[in-house]
Amino acid sequence: MSVERRKFLKMAGxxxxxxxxxxxxxxxxxxxxxxxxxxxxxxKPIERSGALTAKRWAMVIDVRKCQEAGExxxxxxxxxxxxxxxxxxNPKDEVKWIWxxxxxxxxxxxxHEYLNDAVKHAHMPVLCNHCDDPAxxxxxxxxxxxxxxxxxxxxxxxxxxxxxxxxxxxxxxxSRSFNWRDPRPFIEDIQPDFPTRSRGVVEKCTxxxxxxxxxxxxxxxxxxxxxxxxxxxxxxxxxEVRKLLAERFxxxxxxxxxxxxxxxxxx
Amino acid sequence: MYNGGKVLIGILVFLVLISSPLWxxxxxxxxxxxxxxxxxxxxxxxxxxxxxxxANHMDLLNEWRDQVVRNDERFEIGxxxxxxxxxxxxxxxxxxxxxxxxxDRCHDYLGVEPYCWECHIVPKEVQP
Lengths: 267, 128
What we know:
The complex is a heterodimer.
Chain A: H1 2-41, E1 45-46, E2 57-62, H2 63-68, H3 74-82, E3 98-102, H4 103-107, H5 117-120, E4 123-127, H6 135-139, E5 145-147, E6 154-156, H7 166-170, E7 177-178, E8 202-203, H8 209-213, H9 219-223, E9 229-233, H10 240-247, E10 250-251, E11 263-266
Parallel strand pairs in A: 2-11
Antiparallel strand pairs in A: 2-9, 3-4, 5-6, 7-8, 10-11
Chain B: H1 4-18, H2 20-28, H3 50-71, E1 75-77, E2 83-85, H4 88-95, H5 100-110, H6 123-126
Antiparallel strand pairs in B: 1-2
């Protein structure tokens, strides 16, 4: 019995050696093949040619100018068309990137009894605030939502989103929408240069990162004929956003939440 | 062994049955099946050479996805020295114009179902 066991152990040892000796050769062989084609490829990424860049993108919304435009919906329409945002015609399933809110809902926590009537009854566009300290990013379990360090945009990687909706619970602004149903049949005019989303992912405004990369301003800013939406680099003291913030009184949404929103409302 | 003969016959029948797809393919010359893919508009030039792409396009697409979405690096110079935008809908499909006769034909044969198209758009399908 003991002899058989010894024999067995010898055989097992030799077999293991044989396998261990053979395997790396095979793996190395494959690696080399891969390295050859990679070297041949010489792939180098091109730096963002012609893209709009900033250290800290921010938006300033002139509520007065927006009010003067009345019932205008150009920014909402442009955004939702550009990004293939579905229209379910049902508030329970609603998906929205930029929409209208009353002063009470947008900036209501900064209300007081004697506040100017014009301000109190104003309506204003609201969107993702691309916060400096975004609550959504902290809670995302897969890293699908992340803050771009180079320019501060809060992004969603729809490939990684698992639809847990923690970010929706965490966002103090209700800026995020969930796709309860397959959105594609509910998009009237599909734009081929932007993907749709699939059922079970969360979506929101991205400050048009894809347009910035092509050197274009965000779709809502471009569509606003009243000039109420201004987009620019907050770190650049000469930028229009900084000048407006220096000149006029501004508010941000829910400052108490501590997220440091980067969308400013001029009142 | 009880009923040794019957058991052996049973095992033999079992082996023949389980290997029957192999016999069938040998008899019908099924191993020579070729998938005919539509030629790309620009011929053999591609972001990498065709043989590499055949084996590794899925890895390349994943790499592109991460570079565009996570790093905002949207362009690269391909192995043929041409600058390409890292875009499935535009770069890949502008040359492989017919998704049905290129992507789908091979994926269907191999029984893989990539979910690219749940979100990404085939420009031809939405443009009149």
